[in-house]
Amino acid sequence: QVQLIESGGGLVQAGGSLRLSCAASGRTFGNNAMGWFRQTPGKEREFVATIRWISGSTSYAESVKGRFTISRDNAKNTLYLQMNSLRPEDTAVYYCAASLKWMDIPTMEVEYDYWGQGTQVTVSS
Length: 125
Description:
This protein is an all-beta fold and about 120 residues long. About 0% of the residues lie in helices and about 50% in strands. The strands form two sheets. Strands 2, 4, 5, 6, 9, 10 and 11 form a seven-stranded mixed sheet that branches. A four-stranded antiparallel sheet has the order 1-3-8-7, with no helix packed on it.
């Protein structure tokens, strides 16, 4: 079993930056990829970015390309999301997730197996 704990959320003004972290513990063997999703009340959980754990191959939602960067430290079992040029539309609860499934680029919620508790990101105008 994998436990994921996010941190780094907060309140920022539009144009600002935040760096989210997700520490993984427990049995992480077998993880194929990790990713970030976000969700606002009344909306579906939305894919943000993913990274293959070994190769480092990444994929981003179109809405965050050029602004967000996903990365990981394999030795520390830690996932990061650097968010720059934040917009009010980025306001959401951000979740990190781990996928055990054999696929190149998991981008759907159902493709992930473990989830963190979420961290709130609020961007004011």
